[in-house]
Amino acid sequence: MKLGKRFMVKPHTRLRLGEFDPDDTAGFEKGGEAHARLEKNISRMEDLQYRLYAESRHALLIILQGMDASGKDGTVRHVMSGLNPQGCRVTSFKVPSAEEASHDFLWRIHQAVPAHGQIGIFNRSHYEDVLVVRVHQLVPKSVWSARYDQINAFEKLLDENGVTILKFFLHISKEEQKERLEERLQDSARNWKISPADLKEREHWDDYVKAYETVLSRCSTSAVPWYVIPSNKKWFRNLAVSQIIVETLEQMNPKIPKATFDISKLRVR
Ligand code: ADP
Known about the structure:
It is a single chain. By secondary structure, the protein is an alpha/beta fold. It has one domain (3-256): Rossmann fold (3-Layer(aba) Sandwich). The chain contains twelve helices and five strands. The protein has a five-stranded parallel sheet, with helices on both faces. α2 runs parallel beside α12 (234-252) and α3 (72-79) crosses α12. It is globular and about 70 Å long. It starts with a helix and ends in a 17-residue tail after the last helix. 31% of the residues are buried. Residues 68, 92-96, 123-124, 128-129, 132-133 line the site of adenosine-5'-diphosphate.
């Protein structure tokens, strides 16, 4: 079975994260075939990106969400290593600036959507506006609860205008997060990646699970589905994400445009 099909969240289903095993590896084992497949995916992505750029009729937007230490940065680093930087841009969404906060929540997002021919990667996204914002009640419930429909409408607009969207939820267990945060505390080279706020956020784990369950249940649509990626094992996370990106680009099937003039009449002097 294609990995995309296996990990896609069926539209309009009530999802419980407890039913998804973050240790799942779809029958793959570390090393060997899994490693070879990742390498193949990365080089395949390079070719498909080239064609996407040449054709310039469609864009691919990859959205990465997940709890702290779920591997959003690592996914960008490993999986995107084969992409040509000229044709892709990574945007990391932080606490909105004063200017961003004075607009609607999708304003800053829309500006970062990739142009046709480009691949855009969002490290966090507009989903923060129904995740952190909901967990910490940064706006009233009446405001954040209207956003699921607004997000679906926004993504539909993009999809209908040539932007294919892939949404990955990097699913780790609470125990795995503990181990990763402890590693960050112990390794001086990685201390910078941790703050007291991260440890405080961990106390809200159950609230985040609830908020993610609503996102995955309400915002997985047939045109723009969510994928729950088992991410306790980094090697499998990289394999699954790269595989689904390749499957999606292959389905988009970008083609090198034909010359609009008679090539045989051209001479380089
Ligand atoms: P990282 O993504 O590596 O964790 P930071 O440590 O700078 O980067 O965290 C970014 C922070 O910005 C996160 O705590 C995230 O919840 C917050 N954030 C992102 N978008 C929003 C938003 N729309 N409203 C409030 N906080 C947000």
